[in-house]
Every structure is written in C-alpha cells, then in structure tokens.
From TrEMBL:
GO terms for molecular function: hydrolase activity. The keyword Hydrolase applies. Residues 16-232 form the AB hydrolase-1 domain. SUPFAM superfamilies: alpha/beta-Hydrolases. Keywords: Hydrolase. This is Alpha/beta hydrolase. The lineage of its organism: Bacteria, Bacillati, Actinomycetota, Actinomycetes, Pseudonocardiales. It comes from Amycolatopsis rubida.
Length: 245
C-alpha cells in the first residue's frame, strides 16, 4: 500500500515534482529555488518518511503526493539521493513523467562513496558536532569553505549539528544500496544532468555515468560542492530553467 506523503504544494502551471537528498528535505535542499520555480510551475515536494521505505516506496509516495495535489504529469527535479528516486519515478510511471533534472546524483555508489556513506552512518550514532564537522568537510567545496570566517564556520557547524532530520539513517542506507544503472537506458524523456564539479561526496564522474546511460541526456557542469543550493543557487536555477523551457 502506497504511503501518501504530506506535500508542499506551491505555484501554478506545469507540474514540477521535487525529490530531495539523504539527510535533507524539500526546504533544506531546494529552499532558495522554491519561490522562483513556483512563479511558473505547480511545485510539489514532500519530505521522506522518518522510518523505513524502499526506493520504490519513495517513488510511489512522491507520485501519490503529486496526484493527490491534482498534478498528474510533471518534470522530476532530483537532488543527490533524489536522483535515484527520480529515475525510479520515471521508470515506474513513464506515463506521468515529462522530463528529468538530475543534480549532484549517481546511479550507484562507488567504493569512495560507500566509505563516505559508511562514515556518515556511524557518526549518526554519536556526537552530532563531530557529524556536522564531517558533513561540512565532505559537502562543502574547498573554495566556499576557505571563504568562511572562523565565526561563520563555527556557526555553520553548530547549525548543521542541530538540524539533522529524523530518518537520515535509513536514507543514508538507501543511498548506500541504490543502483539504477539497469533502468537508465529505458528513460525516454528529455533529461538534464547537472554535475557539481567541486563535489567530494558525489564526484562529477557519477553525473557523467548518468548522462552516458540515459539516451539523449544533456550534461552541464556547475562549479560547486555537493551543497549546490547554498553555494551556487543562481547557477542551479538558471540550468533548471533552461531544462524546463
């Protein structure tokens, strides 16, 4: 039975379904873009449940949220783990998906990503400040980090330590086990893949693998770490806007 997620619905126009990353949320991952996207689209997003759920169930839940909101067809904008969810939405509901935008994503973790996710999972069990320092080190690009004052860095770590969402552990495990490689060739909608070129958590070669696997996919590069919504929101929005047009 499909769980119906509590959605965020904003704007009016063609449908745009949001799929967020592990340890994130709709507002956390897409917040800087929401007002602008809602000017031209009906934007639907929902935070994932705090317990359990497979990739199929996340895909089913997001589609149910969109349909419940009266949005029967949509482009899917996926970020990080959300790119795997978006691919799964496209392959389970091809009649509903009109396009894909896959940002800072991956088809499957490689050895480096697996180690990063394993550390994330272990640190979730202990001190949240240590976890926040680790995530800051892996999610933020070196130039962005270097530009922070010591006070800004301390505040950023403290804020991150206080805002770890419930459900992060199972979402990290989903990312650890995700593998959508076999599905990519069947995707038949216009697809934009956005690579974050300064990303040490999900390096850009993963975006290249997505673009290579999806017929006709376009790849664009943005100089950002994994946290593109904070580091390069304007460049991200420009790329999304181009795809939506």
């Amino acid at each position: 039975m499909t769980e119906h997620f509590a959605p965020l619905v904003a704007g009016q126009g063609p449908g745009l379904l949001l799929a967020h990353g592990a340890g994130g949320g709709v507002t956390a991952n897409f917040g800087p873009l929401l007002d602008d996207l809602a000017r031209t689209h009906t934007v639907v997003g929902a935070d994932y449940p705090v317990e359990g759920g497979t990739l199929d169930e996340l895909a089913d839940g997001l589609v149910a949220a969109a349909v419940d909101a009266g949005v029967g067809k949509f482009t899917v904008l996926g970020y990080s783990l959300g790119t795997a969810v978006a691919v799964r939405v496209a392959t389970r509901y091809p009649e509903r998906v009109t396009g894909l935008v896959l940002t800072a994503g991956f088809a499957r973790p490689d050895a480096r990503m697996e180690l990063a996710l394993d550390l994330w999972a272990e640190l979730l069990k202990g001190d949240r400040t240590l976890l926040a320092k680790y995530l800051t080190l892996t999610v933020v690009s070196e130039p962005f980090l270097a530009a922070l004052t010591p006070e800004q860095l301390t505040a950023a770590v403290a804020g991150l330590a206080e805002s770890v969402p419930a459900g992060t552990a199972y979402q990290v495990e989903l990312a650890r086990n995700a593998d959508t490689r076999a599905e990519l060739a069947s995707i038949a909608v216009p697809t934009l893949v956005i690579a974050t070129t300064l990303d040490s958590l999900v390096p850009p070669r993963h975006s290249q693998e997505l673009a290579d696997g999806i017929p006709g996919a376009e790849l664009v590069e943005i100089a950002s770490g994994h946290g593109i919504g904070e580091e390069a929101p304007e460049a991200w929005l420009t790329a999304i806007r181009k795809a939506l047009r």
